[in-house]
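Tutorial, part two.
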Amino acid sequence: MKTLDPTAFSTADVEKLEEVASSDLPPQVKALIHEIVDYVRSGETIYLLHKDEELTPNEAAEHLKMSRTHLCKLLDRGEIPFRKVGTHRRILVSDLVAFNEKRHAAQLELAERFAHHSETTAASNEALADLA
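Running the prediction step on this input gives:
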């Protein structure tokens, strides 16, 4: 795993990155450079991971922004695949990304259901008010 420390970038470095992003580049490259600039400006460390790289539970939990204990519960329930190296667990980055995408999709679906429920409730309340 490689990391980019935002404190290693000077203001001139960030400005140069923004200049490069404004040049004639494919849209994906421009988006990537803009995202790097946003992370550097916010002071967040950037992690560069290969999909076949393995992470420890501590590293995986940090990337998912959850406690190690909660991650271990997910591993024990089989929600995230892992392998054992001796007594230590290792999680593939690709499996972590797949889990996170699935979790994000479930969160969006739940939010959509709540929004739909709220709209239905509001419409029902209006209909009842009209009857009164």
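Strands lie at 2-4, 46-48, 54-55, 83-85, 88-92. In part three we will examine how such features are distributed along the chain.
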